[in-house]
Design a protein that fits this description.
This is Tryptophan dimethylallyltransferase. Belongs to the tryptophan dimethylallyltransferase family. Keywords: Transferase. It comes from Cyclocybe aegerita. The protein is of the alpha+beta class. It is globular. The chain is built from 15 helices and 8 strands. Strands 1-2-3-4-5-6-7-8 form an 8-stranded antiparallel β-sheet. It folds into 2 domains: 93 residues, no CATH class; 217 residues, no CATH class. α9 runs antiparallel to α10, α12 crosses α14 and α14 runs antiparallel to α15.
Length: 377
């Protein structure tokens, strides 16, 4: 979930989580109020609350919050007030309301939780950081105590094949992220190859093809590309970005994200299965999850009935379908982001739908989900 941009303008948390409060008091002895302080004060209560659900010890929570303050908040750019004072519009497109950071509460099938974050890296003037800063950020992770495992083999290849260091593009070329868990933090990078494609004249798919060849993932990627190439141009999902973890090759996963134009369940399933080419128990289980969530989130909307976007969200791009690939497995695995803010009428509809879905699985965290999310809104 992202922090609603308009809510940050007057946001002053009244009651912080104990770990957040303790860390706030410590750092205020050293730092004056800055952009960094604004973003930490506005967003850390959500992160801290989520971390309390992750199974992390208090020491780990403090380490993650310290990392978030020292390494992430300085790169979130101008505050909403500063953008307004300068007559500027926010440039980040990480979320639909231009908030440059979002937190993800991952609820597993057994009820356990882990926490993730994603961020758009911005300079102090609010503009996207150049591609060269991506490598600098990654190398700094080697010195972070809460990062227990780090390898840049795949990120180096992605940087060389998908980004353009000489570009002066006004939009971001990469996002940064990570997973917080009791085993430590794992870094992640999202690469957006549009700037390099524009400068070199190559398509995004050609750039990804070169990247896949160097990583040894061509078989899975060719299956995805073959299906996408078979679709008419007006209905074909567009290639958006590539993500990899900062782990050694044998443990790493690469994901390629496509933005779909289709707004029907049947169309989304068609893309997820590459026109029926992907099957098997794991894929069928994933499709069942999507169908169940669809029914809870969009009651009464049939398989072939297009969703209608909210009037104020009609400009948004739609479903994000992605395929996970890794060494030793030539078959890509499909997943999908459901853009609930675009197609649900309210936060209450989203909360109710997810709560009923969790209840249908008899996951114990369902009793906490609705109350926790409402508390954070």
């Amino acid at each position: 979930m992202s922090v609603a941009w308009e809510r940050l303008i007057d946001h002053i948390p009244q009651a912080l989580h104990p770990v957040t409060l303790q860390f706030q008091q410590q750092r205020r002895q050293v730092f004056e109020e800055t952009q960094q302080d604004f973003w930490y004060t506005a967003t850390s209560p959500i992160l801290s609350r989520f971390l309390s659900y992750s199974g992390c010890t208090q020491q780990q929570q403090e380490e993650f919050l310290s990392f978030y303050y020292a390494s992430i908040t300085p790169l979130l750019g101008l505050s909403p007030q500063q953008f307004s004072q300068r007559g500027m519009k926010p440039l980040s497109f990480l979320s639909d309301d231009h908030t440059p950071v979002e937190f993800i509460w991952v609820i597993e099938g057994d009820g356990t939780s882990s926490i993730r974050f994603a961020m758009d890296t911005l300079a102090h003037d609010g503009t996207p950081l150049p591609a060269k800063h991506c490598q600098q950020m990654l190398q700094s992770l080697r010195k972070v105590g809460c990062v227990k495992s780090f390898d840049s083999t795949w990120t180096d290849v992605c940087h060389e094949t998908l980004l353009c260091s000489s570009s002066t593009a006004s939009t971001s070329q990469f996002f940064f992220g990570g997973d917080f868990a009791p085993t430590g933090m794992v870094g992640k990078v999202y690469y957006l190859p549009h700037a390099r494609a524009q400068i070199t004249g190559e398509s995004e798919d050609q750039l990804v093809t070169e990247c896949m060849a160097r990583l040894g993932l061509s078989v899975g990627w060719n299956a995805v590309l073959s299906y996408m190439s078979s679709l008419p141009a007006e209905t074909r999902p567009s290639t958006e970005m590539v993500s990899v973890d900062c782990l050694e090759s044998s443990r790493n996963r690469l994901k390629v994200y496509f933005r779909a134009r289709d707004r029907t369940l049947s169309g989304i399933e068609q893309h997820m299965t590459l026109g029926g080419a992907l099957d098997g128990e794991a894929v069928q289980n994933t499709l069942r999850v999507v169908r169940n969530l669809w029914g809870f989130l969009f009651p009464g909307v049939g398989r072939d009935q297009p969703l209608s976007p909210r009037a104020d969200k009609a400009f948004l791009p739609g479903f994000l379908i992605y395929y996970e690939m890794k060494l030793g497995n030539p078959t890509p695995f499909p997943k999908v982001y459901i853009p609930v803010r675009q197609y649900c009428e309210s936060d209450s509809q989203i909360i109710d739908g997810v709560s009923r879905y969790l209840a249908s699985l008899n996951i114990s965290v369902r009793r906490d989900y609705a109350s926790e999310v409402k508390r954070l809104l």
